[in-house]
Structures are given as C-alpha cells and as structure tokens.
Amino acid sequence: MTGSTEHSTTPSACCDAGADPAPAAGRLWTVDEHLADVLAAVGPLPAIELRLLDAQGCRLDEDVIADGDLPPFDNSSMDGYAVRTADTEGATDTYPSVLSVVGDIAAGAGELPKVGPGQAARIMTGAPMPPGALAVAPVEWTDGGTGTGVAAAAMTPPVPDEEVRVLRPVAEGAHIRRRGSDVAAGTKVLEAGTRLGPAQLGLVAAIGRATVKVRPRPRVVVLSTGSELVQPGEPVGPGQIADSNSFTLTAAAQEAGAIAYRVGAVPDDADRLRAVLEDQLGRADLIVTSGGVSVGAYDVVKEVFGSYGGVDFRKLRMQPGKPQGFGRIGGAAGVPLLALPGNPVSAYISFELFVRPVIRTMLGAADVHRPVVRALCPAALRSPAGRRQFLRGRYSAADGTVEPVGGAGSHLVGALARANCLITVPEDVTALPAGSEVDVVLLDS
What we know:
The chain is α+β, with helices and mostly antiparallel strands. Helices cover 17% and strands 29% of the residues.
C-alpha cells in the first residue's frame, strides 16, 4: 500500500503538463490553463501600515526587529524576597537566615531600595530587581515576614522593623528573569511573510511596536444570482430553493483569509444585478458570483458582466464546474471577478480550485494551493472522457486511503458536507479499478 506522502501543492500536478499556455478562443480550457490565466492577472495587494489588532490574519511585508531588550530589565519571576545569596548560605528550617526587610518593590516600581548585607526587599512577580540583590527567595521558602518561623503561603503586609526568615539557601540568579533573556535588542523577531496571529501580535506589542506593515486581507464580495433563490428561514415556494451558495462561498473566503462580505441572492434582473455590482465595487478587492454562467434564456450574468467588458466566459475540461467566468470590472485596473457555476458542489469545487488561490495570492501567502497527496482508493471509479473529475471523498491519513462520498451529482450538498478531500481523476482516464492510486486534494489542512 502506498502511503500519503505529499508530492505537490497544486491540484493538477500530474495532468496537462504539456498544455498550450494560450488556448484558442472557443475551445475547452483545461483546469491548469484556466488557473494559470487567473493567477497571472492577480498579485499581492499593496502593503499598508496597520494597527496591531487590525493586522490580525495579515502577512508581514517587513522583517520586525526588536529595538530594545525583552525583558527590558532584570525582574523577579516569583513573589518573594530579593536577597544577597551570601546571606542565605546554610539556611534551614531550624537555623533560618534572619534578614531585615528594607522595603517593598511592586511591578512598575521606579525607586528601588538598596539591599545590603543582612537585608532583603519584599518583591512581587515582574518587579525590577533592586541593587545589591542577587536572587529571589520565593515566599514559600520563608516565614512570609511574620517573624513566627512558620512558612507562609501568601505575603503579608509590611510592618515596622519587619524581619523575614529564609528557610533554605538561594542560588545566585535564582528566580530572576534576566534582561534580554527572551529577545535581545537588534534581534529579528518575525520575518516578512509571517502570518500574524495572537502570539505574533503579542510579541510585536511586547517589543513596543504599535503598527506593522502588512499585506492586507483582501475584501471579497460574494453574491448568488437567480430568481429561484430565497433566504434561509424564509418560506420556500414552488420552484424555489434556499440560497446556500452565498453562505458556503463567504465562509470559504473567510477561511482562506479574506474579509468576506455576503451580499446574498440577486434575482435574474439585469438592472438589479448591475446596481448591486456598482454598489459593491467600492469595497471589493475581488468579486465572486455563483450562477448564470451556463447557457440559458434567463442567465443575465453574462449580459451584465459583458457590458463592463474584460470578462471572459469559458468552458473547462472538468466535472463538475465546466462553465466559468473570469475578468475585471472596470478595465485592466478594475476589480477582478470570478463567476462560478450555480450548482452548489460545482460552486464550492470551483472556489477551491480557482478562487482560494487568488485570495491566497492577494494575501502574499506562500501556500497558495491546497496540499495534494497520493492515496489508495479501495473503490472502482468512473469518469467522463476528456474531463478532469473531482469526486468528494474521505481521506484517512492513518492508512493512506480515500473513500468516495456520495455520487458525482453537482447538487449533492449532503455528501459535500461529509467530505474532507477531493479525489482527482485525470482527463484521459475513464475508469480506475479498485485499489488504484489517486491524487487527493486535502480540504481541511
């Protein structure tokens, strides 16, 4: 049995290697040709300076260098007493070291008491180490400053002429966070291209940066077309269906890293569709539509998009998802648009193959494509001649196998929801016997 060794980051590494990069108009495009055409027309969005929380999910366009040390000063890692180590040598419960408490040091303290021979300073976690002190005796190693000789679980308020009994020796440097021990000044803490999550944003804040230069998350407007569509929760009349595509595609865009705006369903009315597009262009880096790209008497998508110019509708050698549209609204410098088929499975697979790589490219991500692995398929597979088939499947990394889920119908959303991968059957293959190795596009990684 062949395992699941990853061999490619594109969903088509083993097919169309010799495809014509400039297919003639009117012909069937391969998946690779369409994808290459789409990606050639987009690139990373221009870098901008953002405040930290606005930059979450973005990728750095610069290396981040620490201007100073982190921590910026020696500080205590425990609640306890700052001491001279020589004063604690040989300390035991029976014969403790008795030290005079010369002051209290809280986190954020400015003026610090000096610790001399036979002295200690009460200190809190994160507080700066005072001059003269070489270590911190945790409060659990002392009597808590009560003078009773009984170890305390918590620190007590200071009292006049207080003494503290230290019950064991404390090694030099014990319980001290040294200046620069986390990050030294001049260190590159994050590299350009790093995705900023909570931990990375916290690090940037910790070194004192309030803003970062990033590739912004693309703003993706998602809309479905079709007069038969109603919103979930509304009554479904004869010939109507609930709009699921706009939810699926908006969620997919968010998962890919975009800021996604769901417009919802637009009826088959050219003026209404044009008005919606005009309204959304101002906030869109990318527009994604579903429906209206096949041949039909009531498909107004081609009519409206065609009026802008620069949008090409084509047929691909794939199943599902044969009809596709791509171009820009507003000329060469306009907003990129990907028009996907209306059938739910076709729309989702088209998103994974074409839209997701566009979003990842705009983000400046290195991992543009879903990972592809080889897996053993126990079931026999059939596929139409001349089409690259994308079947829904369940992949098991444990044994490197994949099982088809549901049928090949482009309306089977129940099967789609159970799938975690796409099984790829090349264009020149019409049947695969049980036990064949197949390419698998992983959807949950």
